[in-house]
Write a structure and sequence with these properties.
single chain, 243 residues, four-stranded antiparallel β-sheet, 10 strands, Rossmann fold
Length: 243
């Protein structure tokens, strides 16, 4: 479903060139849940943004269902992001003047839907994330966990083939974080959606099928069947890779 080949990203800061990502080859299958881990500055978010079409690589390419994103126009990539990729971020980007239902509907409204035509889909997502009774509440009337569930529903509303999540539990307590992770796991298991998640948390990574470890902008290791190994094994492997 998603593939990177020789992916690299460089930034120039004055006279210094920063290699944020180098020669990253990664395949993510349809319906797979992949977690990306590594120390701060290892290139996790850079890799995720490139895979989601939010940034362009310095070298290499990203292929979505076999289509190289680099060969598409900006408008074509924008349409792909709107219709085929859902985004969940640590900082939620919910619009404060819109209700939960309106925030969830936003991707469909931007794609030309009328509000009344998308309400059945919005209600389905509200039911999925357990917020039907909060549909008319604005973000400032919701808890942090409820806001993140709205953000996940918004990411899923267009039925994207891929959901990319950047530290989706980073600002949540343990209970709310587990609820969010269970929702992502359900989207993968019940909807067949592909999930790619950046996290620093071994517990969050243990919800994934596979964990990819980065260090200094390079993929250095992968752990398959992450859920079976558990968070302690993931933590121990992280520590060994950082030595």
């Amino acid at each position: 479903m998603l593939k990177t080949q020789g992916l690299a990203k460089r930034y120039t800061l004055g006279e210094t060139t920063v290699h944020a990502l180098s020669d990253a080859d990664l395949r993510v299958g349809q319906g797979e849940f992949v977690a990306i881990m590594g120390p701060s500055g290892s290139g996790k978010s850079t890799l995720l943004h490139l895979m989601g079409g939010l940034d362009s690589p310095s070298d290499g390419q990203v292929l979505l269902a076999g289509r190289p994103l680099a060969l598409l126009t900006d408008d074509e990539v924008t349409v792909i992001r709107r219709r085929q990729i859902g985004f969940v971020f640590q900082f939620l980007n919910l619009l404060p003047t819109l209700t939960a239902a309106e925030n969830i509907a936003l991707p469909l409204l931007l794609d030309g839907w009328r509000m009344k035509d998308c309400m059945a889909r919005v209600q389905e997502l509200l039911d999925l994330v357990g917020l039907s009774s909060r549909r008319d509440h604005r973000p400032d009337q919701l808890s942090g966990g409820e806001q993140q569930r709205v953000a996940i529903a918004r990411a899923l509303v267009a039925e994207p083939v891929i959901v990319v999540a950047d530290e989706p539990t980073g600002n949540l307590d343990t209970r709310a974080g587990r609820e969010v992770l269970r929702l992502l796991r359900r989207a993968c298991d019940e909807k067949g959606q592909t999930i790619v998640m950046v996290t620093h948390d071994p517990l969050a990574a243990s919800f994934a099928d596979r964990v990819v470890f980065l260090r200094d902008g390079r993929i250095v290791h992968e752990m398959t069947q992450a859920a079976e190994h558990g968070s302690q094994a993931i933590l121990a492997l992280m520590a060994s890779l950082e030595d």
